[in-house]
Structure formats: structure tokens, C-alpha cells
Design brief:
2 domains, 13 strands, 33% strand, elongated, Nucleoside Triphosphate Pyrophosphohydrolase, alpha/beta, single chain, Rossmann fold
Amino acid sequence: MPDILAAGVVVFRPGREVLLVHRPKYGDWSFPKGKLDRGEHPTAAAVREVAEETGVHVRLGPPLRSQRYPVARRMKTVHYWTGRVVGDDDVSEYRPNDEIDDVAWVPVDEAPGRLSYERDRETLAAARKVRRRTHAVVVLRHARARSRSAWRGADAGRTLLQVGEHEADRLVPLLAAYDVTRIVTSTSTRCVQTVRPYAETAGFSLDLRPRLSEEHATPRAVAKVVEELLLAEGGSVLCTHRPVLPLVYDAAGIELGPEAGLEPAEVLVLHVRKSRVVALERHRPR
């Protein structure tokens, strides 16, 4: 049978503390985590489970190695990320329930002694190595659009297919998981349509950049935009086109090899610290 899929977050806050939860059913201490809903992306599930189990909203940082272990007659895979709190980190008003009856910020040096499983202690050790604050720059190739051969008119006006519109909608929780607050996009219609659902849901305006379009992109212009986002503090998304992606990668100082291209609606998440990319991950909306 296929694995049970779950997602969780090792959440840190200033003062070298990590967020743990106690489950009365099992009598154990662990990280906030839970099973994916049907069709849910692991990144969205991770953020949702932390909110449901602790009342705290988080944004994802660098990914961690997944855990895989037996549960009854099946195997379970838990995808993990490091995370930081967005907003209030106070858990003193948390109301205990049958699933989680205690939530606590624990000093990281004391957490191994509190955690019930060796696999969690290993995950914590890995998380401590990458726990420093980062921000995400999400590089996004636009969703599936009408073909050039079938389109009559300027290429910049090419629109998304219906399947592309669905992909754009499914990108919303994925981008939210990284607390994207800035939306930078090519002015081409297919890019604008790809990021518009997130902009409308989150309430952010679009930062339209003609120099990110296929027709007008140059190495210097793209590098200027990428440098701007690497130096920024908050999460951002940069939506562009397949031919422009190599310019983005060069500007960010990353090498991806022969499989550097992104599929339509696929994202490459750059985790950035002090303007330097320290971790990468790729996702497609579900």
C-alpha cells in the first residue's frame, strides 16, 4: 500500500527555542505535524498543521530530510521543514484538546531530552544546523498557456489554458507557505494570470516588470531584479518564462545542471540568507 503522507515543521523562535507538542493519545512529545488532506500540497499541510495544533502561524524555511517509519501495517512518510513564526508566538492561551493537550517553547538544548523518538532528535539536530533566519525568493515559471501556433496576435498577450488557470489557483497555498508578500512578474499576460489568484487572495499588488518578459529580458536587467529580491527581507515570487530562467539562475549564483528547466507552474524556492542562496527546493502545485 502507498505510504501515509504527512508534513510538519521544526519551528524556532529567537532565544534558541523550538516548538513542541504533546499528544495524550500516545503520551509523546514531538513536532507539530499531521496527515495531508486529499489533494493538499505538503507545504500547505505543514503550515496548516502547525496552526491547528499550536495556534501559531509559520512560514517555511529550508527543507529537512523526510522521516519514513512503519505505522501498523503501512509506512508513513513525514515531510519536514524548518520554520519561523509570522506574527504572535505566544502559546500560553492554547486550549488543550484530545489531540494536543500541551504546547511548549522548549530551549533547543533541552529539547532532545523532551522528544520521545530518536528520529525526532535526529531531525532536530539537522534543523539546528540550518535554523538561522532566511527569506524565500520563489522563482516561478508561468502556468500552462495556449500554444504559440494556435495563438493569433502578439505573443505577449497569450493567455492561460483552463488547466493553467487551475494550476494558478493551486499555487496560492504553496506561495502562502513561504509568506510571499511581494509579487514580481513579467508583463506578459500568461505570467500575470499565473500570479493574479495569489495577489487577489493575499491582498498584494503586482510589481510588473517588462524586462522579465521573453521579448525584453537581458542579463543585466534580470540580474538587477534578482539582486533586489536577494537583498530584500520578506518572501517574494518572481514569475517569468522558460527562456529567461537561465538568466535568473546566473544572477542568483546557482547551478542546476541539465535539469535546470522548470515545468509550467513549477517553482524553484531559493532560501536566502544575507543575499546568498543557502538552500533550494522544487515544487509543483497539486
